[in-house]
Design a protein that fits this description.
This protein is mainly beta and 477 residues long. Helix content is 9%, strand content 35%. The strands form four sheets. Strands 22, 23, 24, 25, 26, 27, 28, 29 and 30 form a nine-stranded mixed beta sheet that branches. The chain has a five-stranded mixed barrel with strand order 1-3-4-6-5. The chain has a five-stranded mixed β-barrel with strand order 9-10-11-13-12. A hairpin with a 5-residue loop joins strand 2 and strand 3. It is globular.
Length: 477
């Protein structure tokens, strides 16, 4: 299975933590391009004692001078990327490179959360000594594989110093667009220039003269448009899902001219009514926040909040998707009047506006939170219900209802009422992402006089998302 997640299905608290979006969308554990490693002249002794007295180099590994499965020590290599966290939260990955650079100078490192936690200061710019097992992942894949070192203990990851930033090497797109000539540059920090030849797809990938650029670490805002001039697209040169791709690490790794898109001012009902094309850069003005930010979910780094058109009613609400690490101190409270700029998309049939910066949300005032729409039949907004699509993203209220499925029975922090409607816990803390587990867990048969929340869609199901304990009437979580 992939070490880096592909795009997951729409989020819902623990499900993404267990399933492995997301973001996806990002890249797999990573496969490489069928290295020509012919596994000759390698030292078959894999003991720690042998490698501790000597070392090999990334060049030797990547040129095929080391047998796959060998335990090796690589000294004084530079971490060139942020740390990547797996969807389960247990694994970590990053790219390293020989300081002298050039072909065959980079490799991917796969390790674990407990290893990283035991090595404070590990991150981009650290110079490290690594001891681990060399492998190609996935094995025997005709589409190719990614060379990697697996470091299984903190003893195998030693920081020599920090603060060393390597300069990306300039490589022609014609070289990188051809797998045969691209392979020596796998995992090397490099940069290209040219013209945007393909716009962003559903996975945040676009292309410069046929060379893919992916958003594993950073996504341009707005997405570069076809025909735009790219002065620089830099980052480690990854291989995943059968293709090479550059992974920009932050805004400094991208210089794109002519890609500025003036957002289109639209309303939420226009988006939910189908009159706005998916992928449109939009500006929502005067919308009212009906929720604050969810608790972190999906690797404990993704969050969301909901906004609603002041007029309310069907198709008046929508979710705003947030990458927590990119929004800094963004704070949203129910009743905030907001201007939101982002990209409208359907994420596995969930309508959402995705922002890439806290500056994309501007608070212009406060107002009363729109009154919840009272829904007489809870099953009408459940999966398959006649009113479910109309009220996606809208603040609604049902009740009285009876609990027909407990959290233990349903799973993923959800319970069920009326044998049809799921009630989820995106706004409540899971022990996976915090110290306390405050997930509402009413017993079977519990009567709840009123139940309020935004109607969300994820993992092929509509579900109600209460915002706090006050959204439960007649039962206290």
């Amino acid at each position: 299975m992939p070490r880096f997640p592909g795009r997951a299905a729409p989020w819902t608290t623990l499900a993404l933590l267990l399933a492995g979006w997301a973001c996806t969308d990002l890249v797999p554990r990573d496969d490489d391009d069928g290295d020509d490693d012919d596994d000759t002249t390698a030292d078959d002794d894999t003991s720690d004692d042998d490698t501790s007295s000597g070392s090999t180099t990334v060049y030797e590994i990547r040129r095929g001078d080391v047998t796959e499965g060998a335990f090796v020590t690589v000294r004084s290599v530079v971490v060139t990327s942020p740390l990547y966290e797996s969807s389960s939260g247990s694994a970590r990955g990053f790219f390293v490179q020989e300081e002298a650079g050039g072909e065959h100078s980079g490799i991917y490192v796969y390790t674990y959360a407990d290893v990283v936690d035991a090595v404070p200061g590990l991150g981009r710019g650290a110079v490290v000594t690594l001891s681990g097992e060399y492998s190609e992942y996935p094995e025997d894949d005709p589409a190719g594989s990614l060379s990697e070192l697996t470091v299984s203990s903190a003893d195998g990851l030693v920081i020599e110093k920090t603060g060393v930033e390597l300069t990306p090497e300039t490589v022609a797109t014609s070289v990188l667009a051809d797998p045969a000539t691209a392979e020596p540059w796998e995992s090397v920090l490099l940069q290209v220039s040219g013209t945007v030849s393909a716009g962003a797809d559903d996975h945040g990938q676009w292309a410069v003269d046929g060379v893919m650029v992916d958003d594993l670490f950073y996504r341009a805002d707005p997405d570069p448009q076809v025909g735009a001039t790219v002065a620089k697209a830099a980052g480690p040169f990854n291989f995943s899902f059968g293709a090479f791709k550059i992974l920009p690490r932050d805004a400094a790794d991208l210089e794109v001219d002519g890609s500025t898109v003036v957002p289109t001012v639209v309303t939420v009902p226009e988006i939910q009514g189908g009159t706005v094309a998916e992928g449109t850069r939009v500006r929502l003005e005067g919308v009212i926040a009906t929720t604050g930010l969810t608790e972190p979910y999906s690797e404990c780094t993704r969050r969301a909040f909901w906004v609603q058109d002041p007029a309310g009613g069907p198709r008046s609400g929508i979710s705003v998707n947030v990458l927590e690490e990119q929004v800094g101190t963004l704070a949203v409270e129910p009743g905030d009047v907001l201007t939101v700029e982002g990209t409208y998309g359907e994420y596995y049939e969930l309508s959402q506006v995705t922002i890439d910066s806290g500056a994309a949300v501007t608070r212009t005032g406060t107002a009363s939170v729109p009154e919840p729409v009272t829904v007489a039949d809870a099953c009408s907004i459940a999966t398959g219900g006649a009113d479910a699509e109309d009220y996606e993203g809208v603040l609604v209220r049902v009740g009285p209802v009876s609990v027909t499925g407990t959290v233990d029975e349903i799973g993923f922090g959800q319970f069920e009422v009326q044998e049809c409607l799921l009630v989820d816990s995106l706004f409540f803390e899971f022990s996976d992402c915090g110290d306390d587990d405050t997930t509402p867990d009413p017993p079977s048969g519990q009567e709840i006089s009123t139940l309020t929340g935004v109607l969300h869609y994820g993992f092929d199901a509509f579900k109600l998302e209460p915002r706090s304990a006050s959204d439960f009437g007649g039962w206290t979580p």
